[in-house]
Amino acid sequence: MAKIFYFTGTGNCYSVANRLSKRLNAELVAVTHYLDNPSEVNDEVIGIVTPVYSTDLPPIMVDFLEKLQLNGAKYIFCVATMGAMAGRTLYHAKEILNRRKLILHAGFTVQLPDNSIIFPSGMLRTHKLLKAEAEAVNTISSLIEGREENSAVIKDFFFWKIAAGIGMWTLRVVLDVKHKKLNEAKCNGCGICAKICQAGCIKMENGRPSFSDEGCLTCFGCAQWCPREAISLGHLHPMGKTKYVHPDVTVQDIVGSSES
Ligand SMILES: Cc1cc2nc3c(=O)[nH]c(=O)nc-3n(C[C@H](O)[C@H](O)[C@H](O)COP(=O)(O)O)c2cc1C
Ligand code: SF4
Ligand code: SF4
Q1: Hey, whose CA ends up nearest to atom 6 of ligand 3?
Q2: How far apart are CA 8 and CA 112, in angstroms?
Q3: CATH class of 180-235
Q4: What tens digit of pLDDT does each residue of 218-245 get?
Q5: Pocket residue to mutate for ligand 2, from 10, 180, 190, 210, most atoms within 8 A of Cβ
């Protein structure tokens, strides 16, 4: 009847998708899992929960929206979770679906703590945003149940395209975030980073992770979930107030849901 697809690095999208699935009685499907086994989806209600990367859709969500095979969907909605600014994320989802002769009926945003290391939300704001999450998702759920249509107000601006391009270039080239480095002295060999990586970029070898940059989704999950702050992403290194994972989500939630 209803399916909710999500991609998550540090749990915000998992948490929102999970809340929505309970309220809407929908099946939860990890985007990474769908992309491994693409097949026709026959549900009437389709939800898509995505993080915002550089004021745009993460590349894996672009790939997913290009490949998603829908048959008979009557209502499609997208929820973007973000630290502060969604930019053209919802518009981009609408544009891809439109090109494929599909309709994005409604788009919503949920502000949650920022996992990007560059713009940490801070302790007070993190607490406030997490406290407001349940109500924000309840409001969105009610709108979805009432089949809210707000597609007409989801617009693009030239500025967003430029901002997204510069942001992505800064992350990839200037900050070099796909290039992971290990602090050997801190690493305890727990293997969490290898488990959490949905791109298969991390393998444990002789009790230590070995990283590949190829295919990295820049989800920041490995560095953020590492209990020893042993992983740097290029010039970024989560520690202290820049370290964040959703407090209600576990490694098993993320690993289990992508394997289910
Ligand atoms: C590479 C990267 C880029 C990001 N860019 C933005 C951004 O442009 N605007 C924003 O509000 N949040 C941005 N964020 C923060 C995430 O969108 C936000 O924390 C999201 O809820 C994380 O979802 P997740 O925990 O499910 O991975 C970025 C995060 C990452 C990892
Ligand atoms: S999660 Fe951190 S401590 Fe554990 S193996 Fe990976 S780098 Fe080492
Ligand atoms: S290696 Fe890349 S895709 Fe894998 S967890 Fe780290 S940031 Fe995410």
Answers
A1: 222
A2: 13
A3: alpha beta
A4: 999 999 999 999 999 999 998 888 999 9
A5: 190
